[in-house]
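Quick question about two entries, pasted in order.
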Amino acid sequence: MKESEILKHVDHTLLLQTSTWEEIRQICDDAMKYQTASVCIPPSYVKQASDYVQGNMAVCTVIGFPNGYMTTKTKEFETKDAIANGASEIDMVINIGWLKDQKYDLIEEEIRVLKAACGDKILKVIIETCLLTEDEKVKMCEIVTKSGADYIKTSTGFSTAGATFADIELFAKHIGEGVKMKAAGGIASMDDAEKFLSLGADRLGTSRIIKIVKNEHATGY
């Protein structure tokens, strides 16, 4: 797969607690230069980044991040605020405790509320696969499909592990028509990226791919 084709699927991501505007501005510049799918950044920088990119790059942000246990009202407010500030894509974290308690209706309703808050904007649902059983992952495929969300996403990148090939293969077997998949966390090479895409992932949440590309261009490889 060509480098440019892989980059079209990358959400170029910087979500570290220590992130500064200068670092956010740099990843915006890189995302625009290499034409990634979006730049994924903390909510507090969405307005500044949206003004900076001036419509030349989709701005994605995270809601209920990284633990997911905020109230639905809080997540709804965060979502509306992010979209008002210029976000065009929202990556929300589910309430994992609710999943463990089998409160499936509450999870589905929360996703529906946030999708309504998104309007025509993209909603991705982070289920944090590293904390779930296989049965729970399958159940979340069902819930995300029923909820009307646009994507199911593996990971925040802030827990015990990130995306695995096995999880994307599992998603592909159990998501419904119209639901796309995002692999995030631990994508360390172009080979990894290409394999995730070959398994059916539509988006890749990572900062490393652009670093690899920039290094290769700098060294002439």
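Here is the second entry:
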Amino acid sequence: MNMTQIKYFLMAAKCKNFTKAADKLFITQPALSRQISSMEAELNVQLFVRNNRSVQLTPAAVVLEEEFEKILNMYNVAVAKAVNSFAGMRGELNIGVLEGTYVGDLFPNVLQYLAEFYPQVKINLRNYSFNNLVEKLYSNELDLIITLKFDVENREKIDYQVIAAGHDYVVVHRNHRLADAKYVKLSDFKDDTFIMVSPDDSEMSPKLIIQACESHGFYPKVKFATSLAEEMLWVEAGVGVCILDSRNILHNNETVRFLQVEGLSDPSLTLAWNTDHYNPMKETFKSVFFEKTES
């Protein structure tokens, strides 16, 4: 038995479905089944009770799952320490996060892992609005940024991966005439002032909002803000309405209401990076981040 087989077994035990487990392991379902059968033959015990739709763990498999988790963790610790010792990983990793975006559920496991296995690497997290994030990514002041998909998907030398799906909302003050409405259309706000970041901060954000308004039969009255933080403040003050995504921290603010409308753009949250910039810890962070957030 080897570590690969242990990893395969643990994924199959977690998914309780060989097809799903194989997909996550990037192997075929028959290949996974052969490895599990090989383990069962070696141990002379049945590990899974199979049926057409799922698999169930036998009592022996339940015991092995707990013990193999310990073994795999010890293995990962040993490998990480060896790699760190050889590579001498140190320095800084600078990560920019779109201001006003909730990422509290995405970072804890990753940061705990890096603190344990890469203690000599300093992780810096900073908040910026749209344009500052991109500028600092191009200038290599930031190694990675977390921002909305529409603001990076067509930029040269920037690659990205979606980390959380999002949805657009019209955000209004709680005293707004439609604050308690269950269903709204964008055209319901044709007489309102739309607060949006200026084209200097994001070329795409105001462009997409204005195009969406025009497709609903009106050109919006616009008040530009210099940053996303300023836009949020104006809406909190009841000066106008705005379009924000589902991860914006105002979502839990009692001063405003989030009213769902048809999608105006793709505000999915992404992790993005400059393909011309090399930092070995950037690759390590990406690998750990996607492993921890997908598990």
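Reply: The first strand starts at residue 48 and ends at 50. The CA atoms of residues 139 and 147 lie 17 Å apart. Hope that helps.
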